[in-house]
Design a protein that fits this description.
By secondary structure, the protein is an alpha/beta fold. It has 5 helices and 5 strands. The protein has one domain: Rossmann fold (3-Layer(aba) Sandwich). Strands 2-1-3-4-5 form a 5-stranded parallel β-sheet, with helices on both faces.
């Protein structure tokens, strides 16, 4: 059964690997999320500018276009500070200093349960903060 509270929380996926993107969309939709996708960072910024329901950006690191995933993460945090970020990569080793605060990094291959858990934790933490109930900060 899909969680109605999550349905209002859209996730934007930016991933070069089309097969992985489609699989991730299926997994997240099955978990109850509204899922949008973008081909690259430039399209992601356009999508974000036109929507107010996006809670999480899930991005690969090695993207085509004008920005990689790390640059996209920082651009999104600067313009839309409420959007949480989950970055994924199998080729790049990154640390917490590479990302804005309240971001998560998952190494590929990752388990779908780990991805869903990271996203739910970020959303729950953001919701709790808006209610004034939490001071939890998540680092990569």
């Amino acid at each position: 059964m899909k969680n109605r509270a999550l349905a209002a929380k859209a996730i934007l996926i930016v991933e070069n690997d089309q097969l992985l993107k489609l699989l991730t969309i299926d997994i997240l939709e099955e978990a109850g999320f509204v899922v949008l996708d973008a081909a690259d960072a430039d399209e992601a910024v356009t999508v974000l500018a036109g929507r107010t329901d996006i809670a999480v950006l899930l991005t690969g690191i090695n993207l085509s276009g004008s920005m990689d995933g790390v640059s996209l993460a920082h651009a999104v945090r600067a313009r839309w500070p409420h959007i949480k970020i989950v970055a994924v990569s199998g080729r790049t080793h990154l640390s917490a200093v590479d990302f804005p605060a309240e971001s998560r990094f998952l190494r590929k291959p990752y388990h779908s349960a780990a991805m869903i858990s990271a996203i739910r934790t970020l959303i729950d933490t953001a919701d709790a903060r808006r209610d004034g109930n939490s001071q939890v900060y998540l680092d990569v």
